[in-house]
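FIELD: query
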Amino acid sequence: AARSPNISCGVAQSRPITATRGVSGMSPLGGLHGTEPVARLQRAHATNWVSASDLRRCALVKLLGTTLIWQAVLWAIAGVALVIAPGWVTEVLFGQPPVEDAWLRAFGVASVCLAAQIVLVRRKLEELWWWSWTFVLLELGTAVVFAATALVGTPSSAPTWPWWFLAVLNATFGGFEISGLAKAGTERPAI
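FIELD: result
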């Protein structure tokens, strides 16, 4: 049967399952032999969630996908910059006091790996949308760390604008992801 071109983008659609009484369900004594309770249970739980192609058409889910792409790009760029020139990024670009380069380079490698994970989730977003909650925790958690650093963690001679910029940027990414996840959560089950 062909699917209707109507897209719900918010309401799960159901299709009734029809039970048939075949030879295997008949008893020589008459009536059904164990198939009716199964059919009744199937009808009670018959929920046909919106297909993946329908989910991709929803604007907020598109926003989630776009946010994940930009998030991956920025994490990868930051990671590569920290691996190649950690001192320049922290001392020259952000005006912070010197930090041990090995820790920054290790964080750069982790950032590139994180960007790869974000890309993998983005590629299977229709099925694995709920994995994006980890990226929400990442963005909101780092936003809190950056804001706390701006408030109480920077030396008096160091500027706080880089920490505020990073806090706002990460909080914005987290907000966009929550918007898309709220829509995806009404369209598809988590598993």
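FIELD: remark
Residues 30 and 150 are 78 Å apart (CA to CA).
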